[in-house]
Amino acid sequence: MDVEPIFCAEQIVIPHNLADILKAYTKEVIRRQPTDLIAFSAKYFTNLANVASGVSNSSAPAKEQLRQVYTRGGSGGATLTESQVTGLCQQAGIADAVVAKVMEVGAFTPAAVDLSKFVFLCLAMSCEDFNRVCMGVFDVFSDNGSLPAQDLLTLIAHLGPDMDPEVTPAFLDAVAAELPAGGGAVTYMELCEAPSLKPKLGLS
């Protein structure tokens, strides 16, 4: 591969997101202490690339479509086969390419697809940022604008560590301590008041 030689500092162009990518990667390496750094790095950046590619704007499912899949599939706790999930998505008008991409990113087995996780990953890969993911969760998974705190945390946990290295067990524990005790219901506005979440939601 031909590479243009660099003769002066002005020729060096640093991608705007390079520092953030390397920082997140370094933190994950330090946290996990992998024995095979090369294999770990390959998997990490492959997952990152899969998430970054997401689903195209033209095929991204609407929240109404995801809500339809979730409710028709049996809602929370349902485990379906890949063919059943594909059928539900086809009925809702969600492209097969989207289903295939989410199945790949979620590392689902064809015989057992956690419906809540599948729908959540569809949502997350269609949203621009964490705040929109959180807003969408209440539209897709809630009947009345609120969700049990534990159910909400379980959904958010699907982001880490491969999709979002910042979603660690420590992060989830901190958020849990700031939500209603006993797994009580929480709304989006109440979620925004959790100090640990405010920076990630872009509210501080």
Detailed description of the structure:
- By secondary structure, the protein is mostly helical.
- Helix content is 56%, strand content 5%.
- It is built from eleven helices and four strands, in the order H-H-H-E-H-H-E-H-H-E-H-H-E-H-H.
- The strands form two sheets. A two-stranded antiparallel ribbon has the order 1-2. A two-stranded antiparallel sheet has the order 3-4.
- It is globular.
Keywords:
single chain, 204 residues, mainly alpha, Recoverin, domain 1, 2 domains, two-stranded antiparallel ribbon, 56% helix
Task: Assign the CATH topology of the largest domain.
Answer: Recoverin, domain 1
Q: What best-fitting shape do the alpha-carbon axes yield?
A: globular
Largest sheet: 2 strands, antiparallel
Within the largest sheet, what's the order of strands? 1-2
Distance between the termini: 45 Å
Uncertain segments of ≥5 residues (pLDDT<50)? none
Order of SSEs:
HHHEHHEHHEHHEHH
Radius of gyration: 19 Å
The helix count comes to: 11
Strand content: under 5%
Number of strands: 4
Condensed summary:
The chain has 204 residues and is mostly helical.
How are the elements arranged and paired?
Blueprint: H1 18-32, H2 37-53, H3 63-72, E1 79-80, H4 82-92, H5 96-106, E2 113-114, H6 115-126, H7 130-141, E3 146-148, H8 149-157, H9 169-178, E4 185-187, H10 188-191, H11 198-201
Antiparallel strand pairs: 1-2, 3-4
Helix pairs in contact: 3-4, 3-6, 3-7, 5-6, 6-7, 8-9
